[in-house]
Amino acid sequence: MKEIYSIHEEKLEAILHSLQNENLKIFREDFLDLHPYDQASFFKELEKEDQERVFHFLAPEEIAELFEHLEMEDRDYQELFARLLPSYVADIFTHMSTDDAADILNALEKKQAIGYIALMPLEAASNVKALMDYEEETAGSIMTLEYVSLYSHMTVSSAMSLLKAEAPNAETIYYVYVVDEQKHLVGVVSLRSLIVSDDNTLIAEIMNDSVYSVSVSRSREYAARKMRDYDFLALPVVDFKQRLIGIITIDDIVDVLEEEASDDYSKLAAVSNMDTVDQHPVTAAKKRLPWLIILLFLGMFTASLIGRFEETLNKVSILAVFIPLIAGMAGNTGTQALAVAVRGIATGELEKENKFKLIMREAGTGLITGGVCGILVTLVVYIWKGNFYLGLLVGASILGTLIVATIAGSIIPILMNKLKIDPAVASGPFITTLNDIISILIYFGMATMFMGFLTS
Fold first, then answer.
1. Does the reported pTM lie above 0.70?
2. What is the mean pLDDT of residues 82-106?
3. Of 7, 54, 86, 321, which is most buried by a Cβ count within 10 Å?
4. pLDDT classification of 279: cutoffs 50, 70, 90
5. Do 164 and 252 have their domain in common?
6. First-to-last CA distance in the chain?
7. Who's near 181: CB < 8 A, 6+ residues apart?
8. How far, CA to CA in Å, does 392 sit from each of 7, 397, 440, 442, 456?
9. Contact 57, 19 (CB under 8 A)
10. How far apart are CA 310 and CA 313, in angstroms?
């Protein structure tokens, strides 16, 4: 075993020992006593031969619960299942939650996934294929089909009987959704209401008919915001005819939020996909190179801009000293404005706020910060170099640069979002390089205007 990461380290070491010594009874007792997350963490760190022992010691339904908490790279799933009998793998998928099974099957090669689905029972296979047909970023792709629904004409007593019968296979029963004869979503009733109500009370009398739902084709980020805003533990998913077809549970939304945060962070760092610590250097380099090459050419363009002001630099060489200062301030300020805009778009806050208001607020922020920094640098340069006009040039350049940088940092992600491009693509390095170009133009443009004062 590579290494064990858990608060139960001693217990896990004992489980590993019983596994490697093929003490079936002790291994099963101790391993199945662990939380499924700990089981998955333990399994993931095992060497291949020890993983194969686990498969021999556990039934498919026991492995299924472990796999619902297992997170692996696509290629790792493919290699793992290739070492097992197809019928055994199909049994694992049959006993998994439909949404979790669909997620893993989507990670496999198409031919491999079809082979496993063909070996599954007809109903389970049909449910899994239905989820796999939804596009990856939609609410339909993360919903589960294991839910309990009631009819409004049912009594609490009959509803509780149904709930007891179907609860073992349901993802959650804290909310129970109410439908009509055509499966249209008409209400929701909480488990609490069912428990405290009289047995003869009709569901229609205790249900809440103001039920929030999400269309199956809406983005999963939209569903996540709905659940976050209303503190839902589950959210019903409906088709275009408002018929209930599934639910999204809080555990899936937590995964979505984590994935989106990781994805946005990687894009802000100009990485196409967040690298894992064990990723091969060649793989990591392939992901990073496209952005770096783009930024390289933008940097060369910046250098050529400076070359165009060679005559100005020859006359007043001290100007070169302040290029990193002005470019750095522009990049930092632009990235701050970018972060505010991207966060507003990602959380949906910007939909409620006037976009022009945001841009003007950032411009005002740039004016204030630029004014303060400009005055400070003017005084510092004057005291340092004894040249008031040089200090005024640098200070004025910083003022203009910070105003433009904050406006650019807020406008670019808004425009990208308008064009249906992920605003996080307006990455930190990209906006920094863009603002380098803007700051150089402002700085040397003003330097050329100030030339008579600087050389006198």
1. no
2. 91
3. 54
4. low
5. yes
6. 75
7. 151
8. 60, 8, 16, 14, 15
9. yes
10. 5
